[in-house]
Design a protein that fits this description.
Layout (H helix, E strand, L loop, with lengths): L1 E2 L7 E6 L10 E6 H12 L9 H9 L8
Antiparallel strand pairs: 1-2, 2-3
Helix pairs in contact: 1-2
Length: 70
């Protein structure tokens, strides 16, 4: 999953790849940043691995902190 920056309406652009076929084109969507954050929190409790810490994802989806991450 690749998450874009939050816009003024609280929406983010999301691109997802199917785990069964990583070479397939990404599926683009627009989602509420708040709803996506709730989903990410729930996934972290399973636990599911993320490339970024939940704190970093939380700041990104809230539109806080740096605009890019290493």
């Amino acid at each position: 999953m690749l998450i874009g920056t939050r816009d003024a309406a609280g929406m983010v652009r999301v691109r997802r790849w199917d785990a069964r076929d990583w070479s397939a084109p990404a599926e683009p969507a627009h989602e509420s940043a708040d709803t996506l954050l709730e989903w990410c929190v729930a996934q972290s409790r399973l636990p599911r691995p993320m490339n970024q810490s939940l704190t970093t994802v939380r700041l990104w989806l809230r539109g806080e902190g740096p605009q890019t991450y290493p």
